[in-house]
Design a protein that fits this description.
This is Type 1 glutamine amidotransferase. Keywords: Glutamine amidotransferase, Signal. It comes from Nonomuraea angiospora. Pfam families: ThuA. The protein is α/β, with parallel strands linked by helices. It has 7 helices and 12 strands. The strands form 2 sheets. Strands 1, 2, 3, 4, 5, 7, 8, 10, 11 and 12 form a 10-stranded mixed β-sheet that branches. The longest helix has 16 residues.
Length: about 325
């Protein structure tokens, strides 16, 4: 929140945004003033005072995750055939990533719904039954105006967001969404290749039990802008990328500080984010070095965002 500006000094949409974002308690208002992000106009970072605990998510009702995988551009192979309309349409054999998340839910005590129908995100009321929404390799302009508004209202009501892989190649021209990703966006990537992931913070629910270093294969996204005010959970060691890290659009990589997963509080909600997950094998039983650690990492992130485990610690 832009603490040096008063609501009286603002007009039109800017005033409405500031008023809608204002937390309800004195402690939250102080947090928003001290932790506000001048780029996005919201309370953002790793301080839990940025979270809106408004009682919208009752653990006694169980935990639910909505997976959204709509693509409005190139489609990753792990998504498989585009899905039909509505909620939970029939799946095909090649919809391997969605099937993998469904199994995570079945094995770990949370319900999973899935859709590529933007109408299912048309209001905050449709989203509030879910403890978290996962954008699973969505592409480009995957939301219409109503869905953008609904997602923003949902997050401000304390909702959870999980962004996986090409969630970073989505809604490029929407600054609020870029902030939700941690002040980050996909720019380009080098070849899909093996590398070594370094577990940067082993206290988090998504990193507990992971090795300090583990092999994995991915596209190793280069990011512009680069994430800020987040807790970095895992990085890639660029020196282990035999085919180099230089992207197909010329990005030289990030050197010794190349994050692949992180978490933050954002505008009242919680967000857990990873650029990993490109390879189809990461979502299937077909062998891939480190795939068990990727799945463990993702599961811990999902559980933490939904409130089943401590978040971003």
């Amino acid at each position: 929140m832009r603490s040096k500006l008063s609501v009286a000094a603002l007009t039109g949409a800017a005033a409405l945004l500031l008023t809608a974002t204002a937390p309800s308690s004195a402690a939250s208002r102080e947090a928003a003033q001290n932790l506000g992000d001048p780029d996005y106009g919201v309370c953002r970072g790793t301080d839990p005072r940025c979270y809106h605990d408004w009682g919208n998510f009752d653990p006694a009702k169980g935990y639910r995750l909505l997976v959204y995988s709509r693509t409005a551009g190139p489609r990753h192979a792990h998504l498989g055939t585009p899905l039909g309309p509505g909620l939970n349409p029939p799946l095909n054999d090649d919809n391997v990533a969605i099937k993998a998340v469904l199994k995570l839910g079945q094995d770990n005590g949370f319900a999973v719904d899935y859709t590529e129908d933007v109408a299912q995100l048309s209001s905050a009321g449709r989203l509030l039954p879910y403890n978290a929404v996962m954008f699973l390799s969505t592409t480009r302009d995957a939301l219409d105006d109503a869905a953008q508004t609904a997602l923003r209202q949902y997050i401000r009501a304390g909702g959870g967001f999980v962004g996986v892989h090409n969630a970073f190649g989505t809604e490029y021209n929407w600054p609020w969404y870029e902030g939700l990703l941690g002040n980050a966006n996909f720019y380009d990537h080098a070849a899909n290749q093996p590398g070594t992931v370094v577990t940067a913070d082993r206290r988090d629910a998504s990193t507990q039990g992971l090795p300090q270093r583990w092999a994995f294969s991915d596209e190793w996204y280069n990011l512009v802008p680069f994430p800020t005010r987040v807790r970095v959970l895992a990085k890639v060691d660029e020196s282990t990328l035999a085919r180099g890290v230089r992207g197909n659009l010329g990005h030289p990589g990030h050197g010794g500080d190349h994050p692949v997963s992180w978490c933050q509080y954002y505008d009242g909600g919680r967000a857990w984010l990873t650029t990993l997950g490109h390879d189809v094998k990461a979502w299937t039983d077909e062998p891939l070095d480190g795939d068990q650690y990727f799945v463990q990492h993702l599961l811990g992130g999902v559980k933490s965002v939904m409130g089943m485990a401590p978040f971003c610690r």
